[in-house]
Amino acid sequence: MNDKTLCVAISTIGDLSSELLEKLEGYTSRLNSGIDFLVISQKARRNHFLDINPRLRIIFSTDIGLSKSRNLAINESKCSWIWFQDDDIDLNIPSVNRLYFELTKFDPDFCCLKIASSEDHSKPFKNYSFLNWSTPLKAMKISSIELVVRKCLIQGERYNFDPNLGLGTSLPSCEENLFFYNFLLKGNGKINQHKFDEYVAYHTTDLDVRNLDHTQRVKARGFFLSKIKFIHAFPLLLYWSLRKERKGITNRLKRSKALLEGYRQGLDKESTRL
To answer: Hey, which bits of the chain come out as E strands?
Structure first.
């Protein structure tokens, strides 16, 4: 058994599909033995767990909400690093094996990952130039599925995912951004980052498939702004209010109104703030 382990924590909801289980069992047979899988399956009838094999555990939870799922994975996993994932992602097996090798070699506190498009494996999921930023605002560009974190550094309620944010709530985004922002500030420039430049997984870039609620996502941004330092929040508020949008809420006045509504909602909610 490896002393250093990576847990891939996958969130899903509703009935657990046989396709997902089959895919994960295949991964455990092809990936390094130091890589385990933990599936949080929400909206279950009762709370319980099931071990499919020594490296694949399913936790059934009656809760609903992506942030609650991520938090449960943090509390229940036993590993050196945790990598948050969605149930619709496909892993690049050779790259994930090399990622694990580099984690054990360099022993970083966190590692930002790159993901490719499911529709075209040669194209990135997004523009990853932000990975070179040195400020906490790089958190605004990161997705939780692109982040590996040393687990012992995030044990503690202050740095968990905010349950007011994320899919399954009325504010279906920004939970990962607030989480990573707090993580970076907690480290105060002293945490050890490692860069891994390969595509480790594939995720859809088809926005029509993703079924986004733009108004509520903008409100989630406002909520996020209420939880971060003013020196970072104010310029972001101006930028998001005034920039030209080709999709979503194109009217600047309506967008500003949604941002401020989310900001006020954040001030009224007890949650993480540094």
So the answer is: 6-13, 35-42, 48-53, 56-60, 81-86, 90-91, 110-117, 147-150, 193-203
